[in-house]
Amino acid sequence: MRHGSKNENSILKRIFARGADSAQNLPGRAVRLGIGDDAALFRPQRAHETILTCDWFLEGTHFRRDKHSPDAVGWKSLARALSDVAAMGGVPRCFLLSLALPESHTGPWLDAFLGGLRRASRKFACTLAGGDTTRRREILISVTVVGEIRSTRAVLRSGARAGDIIYVTGRLGEAELGLRILMRSKTPPRSSNPLLIKHLYPEPRLAVGQWLAQERLATSMMDLSDGLSSDLARLCAASGVSALVDSALLPVVRPSKAGRGPAFDPLQLALHGGDDYELLFTVRPSRLNMLPKTLHGVPLTAIGRITEQRGLVLLKQAERERQLHPGGWDPFRNTR
Amino acid sequence: MRHGSKNENSILKRIFARGADSAQNLPGRAVRLGIGDDAALFRPQRAHETILTCDWFLEGTHFRRDKHSPDAVGWKSLARALSDVAAMGGVPRCFLLSLALPESHTGPWLDAFLGGLRRASRKFACTLAGGDTTRRREILISVTVVGEIRSTRAVLRSGARAGDIIYVTGRLGEAELGLRILMRSKTPPRSSNPLLIKHLYPEPRLAVGQWLAQERLATSMMDLSDGLSSDLARLCAASGVSALVDSALLPVVRPSKAGRGPAFDPLQLALHGGDDYELLFTVRPSRLNMLPKTLHGVPLTAIGRITEQRGLVLLKQAERERQLHPGGWDPFRNTR
After folding, report:
1. H or E stretch including B181?
2. Which of B2, B38, B50 sits opposite A44 (nearest CB)?
């Protein structure tokens, strides 16, 4: 079966042409050799560790072809992987793109996808270094991001200790609400809606993560991708501690005309809503005076504290404490 | 929709448990932090560059659930990505695994898959450092391999010059013939068949690639994944040269009872057969005396020379020269 002009070589060339200009802006020209050879070559900085992370972004599982614009798919596929670098306190350097596409999507769809990807690549100074393309009935994306951090400075999930105060950046549940707005719209909703922007164009909290790591302020950190109830349980398990969250302190979604619907419950959204890509971190009580209320325009909010028992997450609500079970996104439990 | 016990956390734990033991064997303990945090941390060696490559391995495109054992899928998904590191002359260090599976395959299938993956991981000293899992109707795999090479020693595709002699490792077309045997068998064929082994369990030519890079013998190099006719054209394009291949010199498949069929043509298999994962490289005529006939048990065969025109591949057969068009595997042109 022959398909004429479009082949893997030409698709790789187009991706390279679109990704190449961002390489020029990269400090230190960390990528010596980009797409077009068997592999990419990256020049690590001295006294730094390399951060490695990969993320699926799959049609039907993570986005829908009929609901999500190719521009948003391009942006988000990179942004969500960058969020893992932010969660370590690292600086992104370059990324690899594995892309499978239907033949019908190698024209305008691919161009728009690469447009969104390139804007994210420029904004977060993360160069396209290589990739693999193939043809497929469905759109499949896997992004690997390479970052760096000064040796021993990376903030792990495992460092939380009893007494530490639990913080989050931003507001929780906004992206989930944005997703609901998108899903119930029959026509494309107004793209200026901030809830929709939070869902379609998340901003990894790189500057906040880097500052917390540099100042050695965070004892543990991770990003909120699956929802607070699921992710905080993971942080507690990794650190061998428990957590007590005060529902009154949670930075919940503000009610708005666009977002309110029959199932609008700000607390549930904040506890279980996924895709926020905010940071969850812990700070020793003695260092709280170092933390500003907002950093680079992003609010930092104390939501509870770490306690001694192992692996429990408790929620305090109206003077009562109850166990909070993971209710966030789990691909092996949920179907979206 | 809830599925009870199996969730992403438990699947990641099993993958980690199976992958972790290989981390202990790694020289220098390059991976400081494995699966279980937001990202992995890798310690680069001084005066080395980091090699980065990613490869799709998708059900229906690259393997078939009913034909390929999970053990072979595990082995090959890593081995083919390692071949790109071999093609640069590098040493593999660690890899990231993106895996999407049906719920029905999270039991014995996953165990057997991880078994094959672990054997490849041990044999080629490449540790599982991280990954991402999700549920999916079809089995999707993307592997990112991280390798290292002393700075400036990587062998690129772009270094071939007129007069250089073209070499390949091993025999060409064996894997394609192995695939045909597998496809026409109604029952699983005998696994001791070397052609089948070449298709199911390819061995990346890491030792040969490393030696060629160390000795600075190869002026250009790449791996043969899509077939000589397609891959040599890529090497010529990258180097801005042409190539003349002598059909009489090609290390073609030896006829065997198992492999011979109605469409058995050793020359066509050698020119266009994919998946061999042998190395294609060029050497200056003045340095040919440095090259042994076999290296680490792998034959090295001169098959032609680089010429001056740009971008052409010519095949000499029975004293005639004709242009050789890329006829190997291209996912945007072929359907398997």
Report:
1. helix B174-184
2. B50
ipTM of the complex: 0.92
Q: How many other CB atoms are found less than 10 A from the CB of residue B48?
A: 18
Buried b (16+ CB within 10 A) or exposed e, B77-86: bbbbbbbbbb
Cα–chain-centroid distance for residue B268?
A: 20
B331 neighbors B60 (Cβ within 8 angstroms): no
C-alpha distances out from residue A24 to A29, A141, B152, B319, Å: 7, 25, 20, 49
- Whether residue A1 is predicted with pLDDT greater than 60 in this model: the reply is no
Decide if A333 and B151 are in contact by the 8 Å CB cutoff: no
**Pairwise CB contact (< 8 Å): B54 & A88:** no
Binary contact (B43, A151; C-beta < 8 A):
yes
Q: How many CB pairs under 8 A join A and B?
A: 223
pLDDT in tens, A176-217: 999 999 998 887 777 789 999 999 999 999 999 999 999 999
Q: How many C-beta atoms lie closer than 10 Å to residue A103's C-beta?
A: 14
Q: What is the pLDDT of residues B54-104, one digit of tens each?
A: 999 999 999 999 999 999 999 999 999 999 999 999 999 999 999 999 999
CB A90 within 8 A of CB A149: yes
Closest-CA residue of chain B to A86: B38
How far is C-alpha B240 from the chain's CA centre? 24
Q: Considering the entire predicted model, what is its pTM? A: 0.93
The residues of chain B scoring below 50 in pLDDT are: 1-6, 20-28, 335-336
Asked if B49 and A32 come within 8 Å (Cβ–Cβ), the reply is yes
| A contacts of B156 (beta carbons < 8 Å) | 33, 37
Please name the residue that has the structure tokens 């990346």: B204
Which positions in chain B touch A43 (Cβ < 8 Å)?
A: 49-50, 151
Three-state secondary structure string covering A292-335: CCEECCEEEEEEEEEECCCCCEEEEECCEEEECCCCCCCCCCCC
Among the partner residues B53, B94, B151, nearest to A38 by beta-carbon distance: B53
Nearest-CA residue of chain B relative to A34? B52
Q: Are strands B298-307 and B242-246 parallel, antiparallel or unpaired?
A: antiparallel
Please work out, in degrees rounded to the nearest 5, the angle formed at the alpha carbon of residue A130 by the alpha carbons of B70 and A82: 90
Task: Say yes or no for a CB contact (<8 Å) between A88 and B38.
Answer: yes
DSSP conformational letter for B129:
E
Q: H or E segment at B22?
A: helix B8-24
Question: How distant, in Å, are the alpha carbons of B56, B150, B231 from that of A100?
Answer: 9, 33, 21
Could you tell me the maximum CA-CA distance found in chain B, to the nearest angstrom?
69
User: CA B250, CA B239: separation in Å to the nearest integer?
Assistant: 22
Three-state SS for B319? coil
CB–CB contact B48 A44 (8 Å): yes
Instruction: Using DSSP, state whether B33 is helix, strand or coil.
Output: strand
With beta carbons less than 8 A apart as the criterion, state whether A155 and A218 touch: yes
